[in-house]
């Protein structure tokens, strides 16, 4: 069974392994080495960056899922042929958060 901890470890390995600099470069989008080091210390990716991590991993052939990476939020998918996940891009279900 995949847990958030193992999904996080798989994502970091897919993006650059033990090198925060390599991970930051792979992610782009203004992510710095220091940000990656903070994530590594916490053992998680903030939900705001979960879709970016999923996309960059999947673009490299690694099947990372934001719902497993950030399970504390409710995610839905909308069809999007440009998104590398077969079910489409992830969206945060804010209605579920309010309920």
Radius of gyration, whole Å: 13 Å
The total tally of domains equals 1
- Tell me roughly what share of residues is in helical segments: 40-55%
Q: What does the largest sheet look like?
A: 2 strands, antiparallel
Taking all residues together, what is the mean pLDDT? 94
- CATH homologous group name: lambda repressor-like DNA-binding domains
Architecture (CATH level 2) name = Orthogonal Bundle
The count of β-strands is: 2
* Strand and helix order: HHHHHEEH
Shape: globular
| Structural classification | mainly alpha
Secondary structure tally, helices: 6
Q: According to CATH, what is the class?
A: Mainly Alpha
Which percent range describes the beta-strand content? 5-15%
What is the fold named in CATH at topology level?
434 Repressor (Amino-terminal Domain)
Spatial gap, N to C terminus: 28 Å
Low-pLDDT residue spans: none
Strand order in the sheet with the most strands = 1-2
Oligomer: single chain
């Amino acid at each position: 069974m995949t847990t958030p901890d193992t999904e996080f470890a798989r994502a970091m390995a897919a993006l650059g392994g033990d090198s925060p600099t390599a991970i930051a470069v792979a992610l782009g989008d203004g992510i710095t080495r220091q940000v990656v080091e903070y994530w590594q210390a916490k053992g998680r990716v903030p939900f705001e960056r979960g879709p970016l991590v999923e996309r960059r991993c999947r673009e490299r052939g690694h099947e990372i899922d934001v719902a497993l990476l950030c399970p504390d939020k409710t995610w839905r998918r909308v069809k999007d042929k440009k998104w590398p996940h077969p079910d489409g891009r992830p969206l945060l279900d804010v209605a579920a958060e309010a309920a």
